[in-house]
Design brief:
- The structure holds two protein chains of two kinds.
- By secondary structure, chain A is mostly helical.
- Chain A contains two helices and two strands; from the N terminus they run ααββ.
- Chain A has one domain.
- The longest helix of chain A has 62 residues.
- The termini of chain A are far apart.
- The radius of gyration of chain B is 36 Å and the shape is extended.
- Chain B has three domains: 165 residues, Penicillin-binding protein 2a (Domain 2); 334 residues, DD-peptidase/beta-lactamase superfamily (Beta-lactamase); 75 residues, Trypsin Inhibitor V, Chain A, CATH 3.30.10.20.
- In chain B, the strands form ten sheets. In chain B, strands 2, 3, 4, 5, 9, 19 and 20 form a seven-stranded mixed sheet that branches. In chain B, strands 11-10-24-23-22 form a five-stranded antiparallel sheet, with helices on both faces.
- Chain B has 20 helices and 29 strands.
- Chain B starts with a helix and ends with a strand.
- Classes of the chains: A mainly alpha, B alpha+beta.
Chain lengths: 99, 650
Amino acid sequence: MSRLVSRELAPFVSVVIIVASLFTVAICKMEVRRMGYSVLKLSREERSLRDLERQQMVQLAKITRPERLQELAQARLTLRKPHSGQIIQMTDHGVAFRQ
Amino acid sequence: MRARLVLILIGLTVLWGLLLTRAAFLQLIPNERLRALERRQFETVVTLNPRRGDILDRNGNELAVSMTTYSLFADPKIIKNPKGVAKILARELKKPVKSIEEKLRQRQKRFVWIERQLKKETRDAIAERKIRGLGFIEESQRIYPNERLLSHVLGFVGGEGQGLEGLELQYNDQLQATSKRLSVRRDARGRPLIVNGQMFNQVPDGAEITLTIDRELQFIVEQELAEVVRDQQADSAVAVVLDAQTSEILAMASAPAFDPNQPLNYSSERRRNRAVTDTFEPGSTMKTILIAGALSRGLIEPNTKFDCEGGRMKIGSRVIRESDAHHRFGQLTVNEILAVSSNVCSAKIAFKLGAKNLFETLQAFGFGEKLGIDFPGEAKGIIQPQPWDDSHLASVAIGHAMTASPLQIANAYAAIANGGLLKRPYLVKAIRDRETGDVTEIGQKVLRRVLTDEQAAKMRIMLTSVTSDFGTGKNARVPGYPVAGKTGTAQKVNPNGRGYLPGGYISSFAGFLPANDPKFVIYVAVDHPRKAYYGSSVAAPVFSRIARFAVRRVGLPPVLITQEHVLPKTPKIKVAAPSGKVSSAVEVDPIQADAVVPDLSGLTLREVMSRVTGSDIRIRIHGQGFVTHTSPPAGARLSKNKVLTVHLER
């Protein structure tokens, strides 16, 4: 009896399996496409962040340039250029050396 | 009926057969035309613009970098309301409406630039408006974050990002990468269908170049040059600092400088890297080369004596004199000739050496030829071809009747400093390929041996006498370090005619330190100083200041430690910190009882600390900036251990 049923159902099951496989393939393809869009969006975002990082790196380079640091030291911290004899160089021999 | 049905069936079968055959033909037989049509319909080309490579100093500090910017263009044919669009753009771009409107009204054109190199924020603000007929193109903008620093060496780029001068031009091929075009499938809306997300971010950037330059040292050198040009009201100044052992260029500067971010605001003359491209008569700094040539041929020794004829010698119809009319030298050793820079005795050494040998010596030391530095426009200088008459020989002996570039002079001194090897000076230390990560290191290159080790050592000792008490280069001394070098004062050739410019001199100093084990070779030349003109008083002090910084920069321990320069050891006293808490970290000299409060108003905190050193005053600090008043006030007496409150304001 059961052999008869399964023999009768076999074509139907086959069709269902084929249709399901086709759907699975279609869904997988759609998923790949959807993920492709996500990847595109994320790669653009990554690029934009890299550009931002670079922009900040340039900004850092600009604000730490020696000329600016000197100006700030003189204007805000009231530092001045040392005169001869005002620089003390520490030597390896424990001697403070006036330059 | 049946026959008809069969006929219809046959007909349909044939038709289907034909269709299937055609379909098979289209699908299976390769057809370029159809493939091209398919590509046009389903594929899109994405162009990835590369970024120009960075230029870094030897410590990795950025000297030239590139950033992505956006250039705005318009298609005037499809812009419906030029006036309205111009108003919107003018607001975002901060430009006059009229100029933008004029561009948008050029209906005959399909492409006009509205504004180049916009920042991302401006681009986003305009893009948000979704105006039809406007578009953006990504471009790379070159930025020199240090502005004027190293401008003559770096050069600059043109509007399309191509190197036009300096290292930007020399290494243009390495810095500038070609743009990458990717062909990817697209969907119905034209969006690319990504297979590999990384492919959009793997842009082939240009190579990263690391220089031999030290940014901090370069800054000091430029500052010193700017100062001497200002103080001496000179036309210009130039300096080169080399690593004495490798001929790496640690600093190379010309003053006045220019801003490579706006190169067109400056004349081409101002943008020239004078250290490499300009040559001039070097003057007495060439006496070193003359003596090196005679020494290498065994014709003289440091103690060989020459008669300097009382400061005056006749050569044919010409009379050679000492640079200072008061100098009337008699018998001098070679060592002394160098120290006092005697013209007459130098001419005598040249006669002993001979014209041919002097010519060969100059060539051996790299004069009259290009050294092969990795920089465009290198000048080779002029040495007149043989034969030379006596007058010409005497002139060349004292650094006239020939020309040399500052780099050639510095490099010749480097040969003496490093033990006799002439090396190729170079600016680029390494080139890194951004795609592969491969690093190409560029090392020193020996051109030839010009002196033996022993001869070079003798030269170094003789050159040290120039900075001795009786030498011309006293002002080039650096406390703690023996300095070897030579002053130079050359008459300036008249640029607008024959002969020399009246009152025009080029003052220079070439030298190295420490003389016993040289680390730095420094050459300084000041063009047409107007307050003084001797190399000893104009260029030597600049040499000294640059050298002082250089030895501190690399932490070079002093060699000559004299009592004069050593600070006495001092006991500690306590100084109150700004918070009111007592700090024990500051060392101050011993104290005096019953100190009187000095007038400290207008001084900085550092100066206050300096003034109270040696007194028995405990300092309490309020505020920052300059001293406004003290408590107790100036002139009042303080008993021992009493606190002095200092009020500062900006």
